[in-house]
Specification:
By secondary structure, this protein is mainly alpha-helical. The chain folds into two domains: 135 residues; 87 residues, no CATH class. 52% of the residues lie in helices and 8% in strands. A two-stranded antiparallel ribbon has the order 1-2. Helix 3 runs antiparallel to helix 6. The longest helix is centred in the middle third of the chain and has 27 residues. The radius of gyration is 22 Å and the shape is globular.
Length: 256
């Protein structure tokens, strides 16, 4: 982000928030912030006290203390063991990855089920895998020296276990936060062309526009057609008409 008048740039951040893929309303909201401090998330979420699927970034901790329920990310656990396996031939990492792979296979089979049936599938098939995995990891950890790569990978999992297993109790919850990470990708790809935001205000405007564009894509819309129609309607739209112009509710005008 440019700092007008200072002839320099400094790092700014995009925060992304979205419902899970199982929610009735689909979309994403981007929030442009001048820092990565946890205050950004606390300000955006305000009094919301739902279930938040996220990575282990410390900026969320105050929100959890205030009543937000943490949902752990199994993809991050998988990455820890995958990195370990890439560094050396680790039977422990290989076995852990195999078990996590079983959890993802169960998710694949339950992806199109109603949430109640998905939860039952998790309860009957995924829960036993999770319980055996925890017991096995605990046993392996007791035989390892503190500070080794394998010990750190196991500790990463066991310390977050309560949050990691919460998805088993609710068919509406995801097993990981990969969906929101995918929504950051357009920014990661685009910044090589954009280079910077001109100011905090311009970054916030960009976040608003990108919110509409990406939410249109998520809802299967042509973003160009969607924005063209919305911009044509806005000058004469009433306040009560605006909700119908949101990406998850918009429909193309009927031509006669």
């Amino acid at each position: 982000m440019l700092s007008p008048g200072k002839k320099r740039t400094h790092r700014a951040y995009i925060w992304a928030y979205a419902p899970t893929r199982y929610a009735d309303v689909q979309g994403v909201v981007y929030d442009f912030q001048p820092s990565r401090a946890g205050e950004a998330a606390r300000t955006f979420l305000a009094d919301w006290r739902g279930k938040l699927a996220c990575d282990d970034y410390g900026g969320y901790k105050a929100g959890f203390a205030a009543g937000i329920t943490e949902i752990g990310c199994w993809a991050h656990v998988w990455r820890k063991f995958h990195e370990l396996l890439e560094r050396n031939d680790s039977p422990i990492a290989e076995q852990a990855l195999a078990c996590i792979g079983m959890l993802y296979e169960i998710e694949r089979r339950g992806s199109e089920l109603p949430s109640a049936e998905r939860q039952r599938l998790r309860d009957t098939e995924a829960r036993p895998v999770v319980e055996k995995l925890r017991e096995w990891l605990t046993g392996q950890r007791s035989q390892l020296t503190n500070g080794t790569r394998t010990a750190k990978a196991i500790d990463y999992s066991l310390k977050r276990w309560a949050a990691l297993v919460r998805y088993l109790d609710d068919g509406q919850l995801p097993i990981d936060n990969n969906w929101i990470e995918n929504q950051i990708r357009p920014w990661a790809l685009g910044r090589n062309n954009w280079l910077f935001a001109g100011s905090l205000r311009s970054g916030q405007r960009a976040a608003n526009v990108m919110t509409l564009i990406q939410s249109a894509k998520i809802n299967g819309l042509d973003p160009q057609a969607y924005l063209r129609d919305v911009l044509e309607r806005l000058p004469t739209a009433k306040q009560s008409d605006l909700e119908a112009l949101l990406p998850h509710k918009w429909s193309p005008p009927i031509k006669v």
